[in-house]
Specification:
Helices cover 67% and strands 0% of the residues. By secondary structure, it is mostly helical. Helix 2 (22-45) packs antiparallel against helix 3 (48-79) and helix 9 packs antiparallel against helix 11. The two termini are 53 Å apart.
Length: 278
């Protein structure tokens, strides 16, 4: 590889992946403007009156941005030190998915409307505006959801059982004459009722059925707070753990008791919670 080729690749890598230079910031800002413009074009094209008057023009705009973003994705792969790692990262997957629908629309009409996924690329604004702390908070929320997945899974299974019971009960009480033609359709009603959505396409007509519906709605309100409480407790526990997670300045051990004053491994004095001196 020639030095000139290597220097050009390095220069483009700093522009595309970096925000510490004016060229890098301008590149990301122009990219975000292009993303927003392309998403607006797709949204406007879905409006029938606009599509009738400007359909061909919007179709051309869509293909212009698709080709532009395709070239950008290929250049990102070229300048990246680890192309596979970038391709498998969150932004790498989003960058690829932001161009695929247009090509799929050649075989499946209407797939191009999925291009609104490009809006996810606007998250790069966090890097430009140095809002890394917000990304850190988002990571904390994501980690809390991952750690509570079993509890939430058990909770969702319990809710499913309750919904099946309500659906079966309303089917027996109301029957096909009142619109509850089968247990699956009755379960659909139970889901709509327990989640307090209430479409109103089918509803109980008998006093007993209305009593069951009332109980289902009250149950729905009662269970809304459960997953929120589970995740909130996990976030609070993680926050407390980080607050008391102190590193020994000598052996660099972390897992100390909240009230510990000395390292359990080497006996060195620990810093106070919050980063104070030992």
């Amino acid at each position: 590889m020639s030095p000139r080729y290597s220097s050009q690749r390095e220069r483009w890598r700093h522009i595309i992946f970096g925000t510490d230079t004016p060229a890098g910031r301008y590149f990301d800002l122009l990219l975000i403007v292009a993303i927003i413009t392309s998403v607006l074009a797709v949204m406007l094209d879905s409006v029938q009156s606009i599509h009738q008057h400007f359909g061909p023009w919007l179709y051309g705009v869509e293909w212009f941005f698709t080709i532009l973003f395709t070239l950008e994705y290929l250049v990102r792969l070229w300048v990246s030190d680890r192309p596979v790692r970038y391709a498998r990262s969150f932004f790498g997957v989003v960058d690829l998915l932001s161009v695929v629908p247009t090509y799929i629309s050649l075989l499946v009409p209407g797939a191009n409307y999925l291009l609104t996924i490009r809006a996810l690329r606007v998250l790069r604004i966090f890097r430009i505006m140095k809002l890394a702390a917000l990304m850190s908070e988002a990571n904390q929320l994501g980690n809390a959801l991952i750690r509570t997945r079993r509890k939430i899974g058990i909770f969702m299974f319990s809710v499913l059982v309750v919904i099946i019971i309500f659906g079966s009960l309303i089917y027996v009480v109301e029957g096909p004459n009142n619109g509850f033609t089968s247990i699956p359709r009755s379960i659909y009603w139970a889901i709509v009722t327990v989640t307090t959505v209430g479409y109103g396409d089918i509803s109980p007509q008998t006093p007993i059925g209305q009593a069951v519906a009332s109980l289902a709605m009250i149950t729905g309100y009662a269970i809304i707070a459960v997953p929120t409480g589970i995740v909130t407790a996990e976030i609070s526990a993680a926050h407390i753990a980080r607050r008391y997670e102190r590193e020994c300045p000598n052996c660099h051990r972390h897992d100390h008791d909240p009230d510990a004053r000395f390292c359990k491994q080497c006996g060195t004095g620990l810093p106070k919670p919050g980063g104070g001196e030992p």
